[in-house]
Write a structure and sequence with these properties.
The chain has 424 residues and is an alpha+beta fold. The chain contains 13 helices and 10 strands. 55% of the residues lie in helices and 16% in strands.
Length: 424
């Protein structure tokens, strides 16, 4: 036990002295230190900024996908993913979901908590002299709020009676309401969608921008489906008719998918040998595709950043060789006084790692400030994750070891007599 304690104290003393030597060398050669830091700072900035943007983009996309609902199935004409050998002309022939099919599913289902249908179109909306072009109008059945809950800042959702009667009532997005009504209370006011007047009955809370645009209600108008029959062709492929089905609590999504598959085939009277002429889409399909896409992007990110890291590493290695040459006499004196090879090796390795880690921390600071600026000046959420911080520090330390090992080894193997006699 005493021997272990003695060795531990000796090791700690060695590390302390090596660190002090390295710190002194870094402090004396300020210009050299600055150049070393600059190289590794640029390298770490390059690779971590790439991964920060990739992670932020992935987070924004997945967050947008989560708004679709993990327990919701979307019955549509087109699937969200295609097999490599798919025949697009077969998909083109498929019929779009119909209102009658929505009613049949709602009547027959045993696994769904709610079944709804919606169509979408783009229109100019206008209030007095204020207007906005290309605004998405969602025309939904009454169940939409059960499948995709809406939190209101003002007002309410339309009632089932308003939905069935096709009343010209509307829920208008928070940002759109600010543009059209210019600070006035929009509730009860009439505005135009195309040539038709609608009365505002609700304004949702601000949700923030969605990477897919349509997932957020901030710039969207929601109206009853029956009120949209003069605005939108419910059978047109361009209006993207979609039946939404939300599972009951405790019902597995796959169980509901199997039921929807059977019911839709029955409703469309498809023979057992015929392929299904509809798609059952869910958020997990998109997430699986994202796993593959971002896996490839991250590999590309390594290739983008690795060259900058290599350049920074060569910079540290060159400066460390110069440092060894300048301090050859001092190394000779240290070895003549009894310094071991591992002490000299550790001393120079510490210097290289100290330079690399300091440069890496500066690079991470630049990335953090950049992410903060983007987040505050745009609607895109950018963040520097703990994993990326740890990766930046680990890469810096590794580059410091790899860059410093050969100069340090050269210094450790110097002959003390020849080293003392060396002149420049």
């Amino acid at each position: 036990m005493k021997v272990i304690k003695t060795r531990l104290l000796k090791t700690l003393k060695l590390l302390k002295e090596s660190f002090l030597f390295a710190w002194h060398a870094v402090g004396v050669n300020r210009l050299r230190t600055l150049l070393s830091l600059l190289g590794i700072t640029i390298g770490i900035f390059a690779i971590i900024s790439v991964f920060t943007m990739i992670d932020s983009l992935e987070w924004n996309i997945r967050n947008s996908i989560s708004s679709l609902g993990d327990d919701v199935i979307y019955i549509q004409k087109w699937p969200w993913s295609f097999e490599s050998n798919y025949r697009w002309w077969d998909y083109l022939k498929r019929p779009v979901p119909k209102y009658s099919e929505y009613e049949e599913l709602k009547r027959r289902t045993n696994t769904a908590q709610a079944v709804g249908i919606y169509v979408a179109g783009q229109f100019m909306v206008k209030y007095r002299n204020n207007s906005a072009n290309d605004i998405i109008v969602w025309a939904n059945s009454h169940e939409f709020n059960q499948i995709r809950p809406i939190e209101f800042e003002k007002g309410r959702y339309f009632t089932e009676a308003e939905s069935r009667a096709g009343r010209n009532v509307a829920i208008i997005g928070n940002e759109l309401a600010s543009k059209l009504f210019q600070g006035q209370d929009p509730l009860g006011k009439e505005f135009k969608i195309g040539a038709f007047k609608f009365r505002v009955i609700g304004v949702p809370i601000r949700e923030g921008n969605n990477i897919f645009g349509g997932g957020s209600l901030d710039n969207v108008v929601v109206i009853p489906l029956n009120a949209a029959r003069n605005l939108i062709d419910l059978r047109n492929d361009r209006s993207e008719p979609t039946i939404m089905v939300k599972a009951k609590p405790g019902v597995a999504l796959q169980e509901m998918m199997d039921e929807m598959e059977g019911l839709m085939r029955s409703i469309r009277r498809l023979k057992p040998t015929q392929e299904s002429n509809f798609a059952l889409n869910q958020a997990s399909i998109l997430n699986r595709g994202l796993d593959q896409i971002f896996g490839v992007i991250k590999i590309a990110g390594w290739f983008i950043g690795i060259f900058s890291i290599i350049v920074g590493g060569f910079g540290i290695a060159n400066i460390m060789f110069v440092s060894v040459k300048e301090r050859t006499n001092i190394i000779g004196i240290q070895k003549a006084l009894g310094a071991k090879n591992y002490f000299i090796l550790t001393q120079f390795l510490f210097e290289a790692v100290l330079l690399a880690v300091a440069g890496g921390i500066l690079g991470l600071l630049v990335v953090f400030l950049g992410a903060l600026w983007i987040r505050t000046s745009t609607t895109f959420y950018v963040f520097l994750s703990f994993d990326n911080i740890l990766m930046g520090v680990m890469i810096s330390a590794t580059i410091g070891i790899l860059s410093g090992i050969f100069p340090a080894r050269k210094a450790a193997l110097l002959n003390p007599v020849e080293a003392i006699a060396t002149t420049f």
